[in-house]
C-alpha cells in the first residue's frame, strides 16, 4: 500500500502578497510548488532565459548562415519530440530564406535511433552539404565521422545527456554539455531547436520567425515528459495560446478533429493524452514521416487523410499495448506470487513476440504498477534485442546503464537516454547477463526508501471547496506536468453509490465526511476493490471540471482509493 504524504509549502513562498483574485485553493497549490513572486505567474515570452546566455548558439548560427544557400537535411527522431523538432527546423529555415531544406526520419526498425553510418549512407542520394540533427546526435560518434568522410558538415542539436566522448561535429547545441552555464537544462529536443532558431532569427533581423511555430514547441515539450521548469512552462503556455486562437499548424488542427478535441479548449494534458499518442503511434508502429508530413502540410484533404491514418495507427497501438501489458503482468505474476518482497529491485521482461516500438510503454506500465525501475525487451533486426527502460526517483537510468557498460564492456551494444527513461540494444543471448548486471547496480543504488511508493498530495480540501469555482481556477492555472504536477488532494469520504462503467472504470458518488454534499467521482481503470455503498474510504484525487455535458460540473478524478480501517 503506498504511503500518502502532503507537500509542505516551499520556504519563502508565502513571503509576498498573493494577487487578490487568486483562488485560495490555488494559492495553497502554488505555495507547495515553490512560487515565490508574482512575476513567476507571468508566462509571457519576455521571461524566457535570453538566447544570449546559451553560449553554444553563436558558432551554430554562424554555421547555419554559411550554409544558407546550400543543401541541408534535418535528421530527426521517431517520437513526437523528434517529429515536432524536425517540422520546426524545416518550417523556420524555409521561412528565413533557406531554399534547400529537406528532412529524413530513420526507420526505427531498419536503421534504429540517431545519426548512424547506415543513415549517412542512405542520405548520400540527397547529396546534403549540411546535416542538422534534432533530438539526437550527441552519441553519434561514428555517424558524424561517416558524414565527414562523405563530405557533409554536421550540426548537432540534442538534449540527451552526453557520454564521455563527443562526436566531432562542426557545432553542438546541447544545454547538458559539460561546463555549459545555460540554465535551461530541462529543454526538450524541440526546445533546444527553438533556441537555436531564435538566435538565428535574431542574427537575420527576424527575431520572431520561430515564434510562429510555438504550437509545435508546446506539443513536443509536453510529449517528451521533460521537467516543466519555468522556461518550459512559458514555451508550453505560449504554444497553447496559439492553438486556442487557431494560430497553429493546420495538421495540428486536423489531429484535434480526429481526436474529438475542441482546439479552443486545449490544455497541456490534452496534448499529452490525446494529440501526442496519435503522433507517436506513427513512430512506434510505422514511419514517423507520416507525422512530420502532417505537421508540415497545408492541403486540407491531404491533412484529413494523414490525421485519419495516425488515428488508425493509434487504435492499433492501443490494442497491441493492451495485449503486451497483460502478458507483462502475467510474467510478473510468475516472478512474485503474491509476495512483494519477491519483486526484483530492477525488473527486466522479454517476450519473443513483443513489438519493439511498444516496449517503452510496457516498461512504463510495469514501473507504475510495481514502483521499480523496469526494462522491457523485444526482438530487433539482426539477432539483437531492443530494450526500453523507465525509472523511479532516485535511480538515474542512463547513469546505471553507463555503470553496467563500464563494469561489463561490450555487454550493452548501445544505450542512451535520461534519468527517467533510456533505450538500449543487447545481443539476444546477453539478456540474462544484463539482467544480473543491472540487478547488481540496483542493489547498490536503490534503498528501501526509494522502493517504498509514496503519493504526494496538496493536502485536504474542506467540503465547501469541492466546487466548480475551485476546479476552474486549478484547471486554468496550468500548464501542469512533470516537475510542476497537477494539483492532487486527499480526503476521507463515504461512498453513497458506485457502479462499474465498461467493466473498467469505477463511477462513484462520494460525500466528504461528515456533512459534505455529494460529489461525482470516477476512478479510471480501477483494479482494486470491491467497494460497496456506505463504505468509508480515503481517496487521493484531482479536482476537475466535467465538461462532457453542456452544463459544467465538478468531478473528482480518483488517483488512489483505499478502505478506511
Secondary structure tally: strands: 17
Q: Find the structural class using helix and strand composition.
A: alpha/beta
Determine and state the CATH class of the largest domain: Alpha Beta
**Uncertain regions spanning at least 5 consecutive residues:** none
What is the CATH topology of the largest domain?
Answer: inorganic pyrophosphatase (n-terminal core)
Largest sheet: 5 strands, parallel
Strand proportion, as a percent range, falls in 15-25%
Count of all domains: 3
Q: Count of DSSP helices?
A: 17
**Strand ordering within the main sheet:** 3-2-4-5-6
The amount of helix comes to 25-40%
Terminal residue distance: 13 Å
CATH architecture of the largest domain: Alpha-Beta Complex
- CA gyration radius, whole angstroms: 24 Å
List the helices and strands and how they pair.
Layout: E1 3-6, H1 24-31, H2 57-66, E2 72-75, H3 80-95, E3 101-104, H4 117-123, E4 130-134, H5 141-149, E5 153-157, E6 171-173, H6 189-203, H7 214-223, H8 230-244, H9 250-259, H10 268-285, H11 289-296, H12 300-335, E7 347-350, H13 359-370, E8 374-379, E9 384-390, H14 397-407, E10 412-417, E11 421-427, H15 431-445, H16 448-451, E12 454-457, H17 468-475, E13 489-501, E14 505-512, E15 518-523, E16 536-546, E17 553-563
Parallel strand pairs: 1-12, 2-3, 2-4, 4-5, 5-6, 7-8, 15-17
Antiparallel strand pairs: 8-9, 9-11, 10-11, 13-14, 13-16, 14-15, 16-17
Amino acid at each position: 500500500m503506498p504511503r500518502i504524504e502532503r507537500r509542505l509549502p516551499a520556504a519563502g513562498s508565502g513571503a509576498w502578497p498573493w494577487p487578490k483574485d487568486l483562488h485560495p485553493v490555488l494559492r495553497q497549490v502554488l505555495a507547495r510548488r515553490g512560487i515565490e513572486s508574482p512575476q513567476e505567474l507571468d508566462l509571457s515570452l519576455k521571461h524566457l532565459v535570453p538566447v544570449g546566455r546559451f553560449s553554444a548558439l553563436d558558432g551554430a548560427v554562424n554555421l547555419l548562415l554559411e550554409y544558407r544557400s546550400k543543401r541541408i537535411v534535418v535528421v530527426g527522431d521517431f517520437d513526437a519530440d523528434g517529429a515536432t523538432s524536425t517540422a520546426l527546423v524545416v518550417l523556420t529555415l524555409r521561412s528565413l530564406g533557406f531554399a534547400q531544406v529537406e528532412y529524413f526520419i530513420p526507420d526505427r526498425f531498419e536503421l534504429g535511433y540517431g545519426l548512424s553510418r547506415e543513415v549517412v549512407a542512405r542520405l548520400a542520394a540527397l547529396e546534403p552539404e549540411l546535416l542538422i540533427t534534432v533530438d539526437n546526435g550527441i552519441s553519434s560518434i561514428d555517424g558524424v565521422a561517416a558524414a565527414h568522410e562523405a563530405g557533409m558538415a554536421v550540426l548537432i542539436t540534442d538534449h540527451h545527456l552526453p557520454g564521455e566522448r563527443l562526436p566531432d561535429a562542426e557545432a553542438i547545441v546541447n544545454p547538458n554539455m559539460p561546463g555549459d552555464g545555460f540554465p535551461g537544462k530541462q529543454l526538450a529536443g524541440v526546445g533546444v531547436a527553438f533556441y537555436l532558431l531564435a538566435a538565428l532569427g535574431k542574427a537575420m533581423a527576424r527575431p520572431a520567425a520561430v515564434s510562429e511555430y510555438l504550437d509545435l514547441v508546446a506539443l513536443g515539450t509536453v510529449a517528451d515528459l521533460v521537467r516543466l521548469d519555468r522556461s518550459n512552462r512559458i514555451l508550453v503556455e505560449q504554444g497553447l495560446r496559439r492553438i486556442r486562437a487557431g494560430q497553429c499548424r493546420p495538421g495540428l488542427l486536423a489531429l484535434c478533429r480526429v481526436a474529438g478535441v475542441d482546439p479552443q479548449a486545449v490544455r497541456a494534458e490534452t496534448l499529452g493524452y490525446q494529440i501526442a499518442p496519435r503522433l507517436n503511434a506513427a513512430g512506434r508502429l510505422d514511419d514517423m514521416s507520416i507525422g512530420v508530413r502532417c505537421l508540415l502540410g497545408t492541403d486540407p484533404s491531404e491533412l484529413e487523410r494523414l490525421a485519419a491514418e495516425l488515428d488508425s495507427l493509434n487504435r492499433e497501438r492501443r490494442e497491441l499495448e493492451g495485449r503486451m501489458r497483460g502478458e507483462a503482468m502475467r510474467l510478473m505474476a510468475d516472478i512474485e506470487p503474491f509476495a512483494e518482497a519477491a519483486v526484483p529491485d530492477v525488473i527486466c521482461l522479454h517476450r519473443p513476440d513483443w513489438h519493439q516500438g511498444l516496449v517503452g510503454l510496457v516498461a512504463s506500465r510495469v514501473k507504475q504498477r510495481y514502483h521499480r525501475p523496469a526494462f522491457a525487451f523485444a526482438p530487433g533486426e539482426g539477432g539483437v534485442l531492443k530494450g526500453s527502460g523507465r525509472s523511479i526517483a532516485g535511480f538515474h537510468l542512463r547513469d546505471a546503464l553507463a555503470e553496467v557498460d563500464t563494469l561489463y564492456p561490450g555487454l550493452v551494444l548501445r544505450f542512451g537516454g535520461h534519468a527517467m527513461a533510456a533505450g538500449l540494444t543487447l545481443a539476444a543471448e546477453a539478456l540474462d547477463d544484463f539482467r544480473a548486471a543491472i540487478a547488481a547496480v540496483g542493489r547498490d543504488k536503490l534503498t528501501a526508501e526509494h522502493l517504498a511508493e509514496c503519493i504526494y498530495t496538496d493536502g485536504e480540501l474542506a467540503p465547501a471547496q469541492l466546487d466548480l469555482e475551485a476546479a476552474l481556477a486549478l484547471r486554468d492555472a496550468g500548464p501542469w506536468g512533470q516537475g510542476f504536477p497537477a494539483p492532487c488532494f486527499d480526503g476521507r469520504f463515504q461512498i453513497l453509490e458506485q457502479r462499474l462503467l465498461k467493466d473498467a472504470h469505477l463511477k462513484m458518488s462520494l460525500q466528504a465526511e461528515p456533512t459534505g454534499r455529494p460529489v461525482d467521482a470516477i476512478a479510471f481503470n480501477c483494479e482494486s476493490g470491491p467497494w460497496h455503498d456506505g463504505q468509508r474510504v480515503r481517496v487521493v484525487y484531482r479536482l476537475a471540471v466535467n465538461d462532457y455535458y453542456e452544463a459544467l460540473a465538478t468531478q473528482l478524478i480518483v488517483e488512489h482509493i483505499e478502505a478506511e480501517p
